[in-house]
Design a protein that fits this description.
Blueprint lengths: L1 E6 L7 H13 L5 E6 L1 H4 L6 H18 L7 E4 L5 H10 L4 H5 L2 H8 L6 H16 L4 E4 L4 H18 L7 E4 L2
Parallel strand pairs: 1-2, 2-3, 4-5
Helix pairs in contact: 4-7, 7-8
The structure holds tryptophan (TRP).
């Protein structure tokens, strides 16, 4: 079973990240095909200081390794090291109706909180769909706030597959309480 997780390096990792997602991911390395990455492109939607982002990305990567992420067992990378994800992001954009993104709770919540709205914030779910679909992910463990993003990825994959055949695996979310 291919399980994919992305973690944004938008601040220092804390105990909530550990118990919320990292621990389960590390524990599952022996019986699942774990794909895990540091979502530094996504972090750009909330962090514009490049130097700080670069430091936080490296720090998140070393924290993961220190906590037990094992590159011999799992596939572990930094999002921006696989540029094809941006290529797929653009291809998927053409299969993403505006309405699908306009209904995204996470975008609406961020705008309501006063975060400046820009295109990357709006198209965030399309990049997340590219992360998920590029690697044939079957299961995506998420917090409740990210369920809709996995559903959006699934909707985009369905739309693409309707036209081109059975190309993308349809992902399912799993909520780890
Ligand atoms: N949006 C996720 C979060 O904030 C991070 C993320 C980016 C992600 N791409 C992903 C999670 C793909 C799972 C799959 O937590």
């Amino acid at each position: 079973m291919r399980v994919l997780t992305g973690i944004q390096p938008s601040g220092d990792l804390h105990i909530g990240n550990y118990f919320g997602s990292i621990k389960a991911m590390i524990d599952s390395q022996n019986d699942q095909d774990v794909f895990a990455f540091i979502a530094n492109y996504h972090a750009m939607t909330s962090l514009s200081d490049g130097e700080r982002l670069s430091t936080l990305t490296m720090q998140a990567a070393t924290d993961f390794l220190a906590l037990g992420m094992d590159p011999q067992k799992s596939t572990f990378w930094v999002q921006s090291d696989v540029k094809e994800v941006l290529e797929l992001y653009w291809v998927l954009s053409s299969f993403t109706p505006m309405g699908l993104l306009e209904r995204a709770h996470s975008y609406k919540d961020k705008v309501a909180k006063g975060i400046a709205s820009n295109h990357s914030l709006f198209s965030y779910p399309v990049l997340m769909a590219a992360d998920i679909l590029l690697f044939g992910s079957q299961v995506v463990p998420v917090g409740k706030d990210q369920i809709q993003h996995v559903e959006i990825a699934r909707d985009i994959a369905l739309k693409f597959n309707n036209q081109y055949g059975d190309i993308f695996t349809l992902p399912e979310f799993r909520v780890d309480e």
